[in-house]
Design goal:
Order of helices and strands: HHH
CATH superfamily: Flagellar protein flit
Distance between the termini: 73 Å
Structural class: mainly alpha
CATH class: Mainly Alpha
Number of helices: 3
CATH architecture: Up-down Bundle
Shape: rod-shaped
């Protein structure tokens, strides 16, 4: 993978994380999962192809760092959004568990 391909791959990852952020904001869970898989595939390409350290010129290195910062910013925003989903889901599951326990307790006293 040459320098241009490395930068293009980071740009593609940024484009996907931009879409992921939009999907998260729109509560499009299925879309978010599909995009996350695309992102993961590109990251794997970077890991595999970048095993031989590619030395970037200063200008390209600055571009790469800027892209990484934007990707990480998107990631932080996506996590903040999805963490609130997880908290709500845990609350719903906890409420359902309590309801189920009460229902079972009521049924057992009703049967005796």
């Amino acid at each position: 993978m040459d320098n241009t391909q490395v930068i293009m791959t980071y740009q593609a990852i940024l484009a996907i994380t931009d879409k992921m952020l939009i999907a998260a904001n729109n509560k499009e869970c299925d879309q978010l999962v599909a995009l996350e898989q695309e992102c993961r595939n590109l990251v794997e390409v970077l890991k595999n192809e970048n095993s031989e350290t590619i030395i970037l010129e200063k200008e390209l290195r600055q571009i790469k760092v800027g892209l990484i910062h934007q990707i990480l910013d998107n990631d932080a925003q996506i996590k903040a959004i999805t963490n609130s989903w997880m908290i709500r889901l845990q609350d719903m599951l906890h409420t359902n568990d309590k309801s189920r326990s009460l229902q079972l307790a009521y049924q057992s006293t009703k049967n005796t």
